[in-house]
Amino acid sequence: MPRVALLAAAVAACHSSDPSAQTRVLRISAIPDQDPEKLQRLYGKVSTYLSIALGVPVEYRPVTDYTASVTAFKVGDLDLVWYGGLTGVQARLQVPGARAIAQRDIDTAFHAVFITRRTSGIRSLADLKGHTFTFGSETSTSGRLMPQYYLHGAGVELSDFRGAPGFSGSHDKTIALVAAGTYDAGALNAQVWQARVASKAVDTARVVVFFVTPPFHDYHWVLRPDVDQRFGAGFADKVRSALVGLNQQDILDLFGAHRFVPAADSDYTQIESVGRAIGTIVQ
Question: Tell me: the pLDDT tens digits for 164-215?
């Protein structure tokens, strides 16, 4: 089927009043970790790519926050979600049989960065005691989970900050809050930091990185276990193959990656262990 015709069929199916047609729509989403306009542009492109590669209608459904993405996946409103390490583990634990299927090449050795204003006097994690500090989302892997893990390893507990730590909600907001002086320091996704520096969105004469974490596995696609029943035997493997085979440069550029590679649940054992240790995973 020609590309235009296929997309027209996808749109028609997505808006069909026939309930059975809705079950044949692959519903994708992603944690809202960056600017909503960028996410809409990125996942609109992903939806188009997947609809062609898989031969089924694909619909991007934005969510309000990290927790909402996990809840929607749990109740079956989403089939395929781009999660951070922690939210991916949380989603899989709530949907038996769900699995990690693909990650970016950069997610096999990801990093978080700690930033501060150049004039703050903060040069190490230990220096954060007595200062104000913000994480990103409460369930962000690179914006909260792993930064808190490395803070603890450096002998810094949340009670050591001046006041309770903040939770900005996104990596972009963390940069903005530190730059504005609302908080003395913050932690965020290293890739977002590097991208903002490259685009001149950060004044590095004013805001600097003072600590980079060791590597860990992070973002990945998680797929519900019932897609083979809805779309046919072998569909889950087709989804993985479509993601790993993605070579559309504009999409890869928006993801900040060279390619996608297969992922396994076992890649996130460390994330699950840390999540249980600090109480963000309780089941």
Answer: 999 999 999 999 999 999 999 999 999 999 999 999 999 999 999 999 999 9
In degrees, to the nearest 5, what angle opens at C-alpha 216 toward C-alphas 131 and 246?
A: 125
- Helix, coil or strand: residue 95: coil
CATH tag, 111-212:
3.40.190.10
How is domain 3-107+217-278 classified at the architecture level of CATH? 3-Layer(aba) Sandwich (3.40)
> What's the chain's Rg over C-alpha atoms?
20
The SS3 of residue 204 is coil
Q: Are 143 and 189 in contact (CB under 8 A)?
A: yes
d(CA 258, CA 240): 16
DSSP-H helix ranges across 221-267: 227-231, 235-244, 249-255
Candidates 253, 178, 224, 240; CA nearest to 70 is: 224
Q: Which two tokens stand for residue 244?
A: 């790993």
The type of residue at 68 is: A
